[in-house]
Amino acid sequence: MQTNDMAFFEALEAQFNRAMVSNDVDQIAQCITEDWVLVTPEVGPVSREAMLDAIRQGRLSHDTMTKSLARVAVYGDMAIVTGRGRNTGQFQGQAISADEWITDVYKRFDSGWKCVLTHLTPAAA
Question: Out of 5, 42, 97, 119, which residue is the most buried by the measure of CB atoms under 10 Å away?
Answer without folding.
Answer: 119
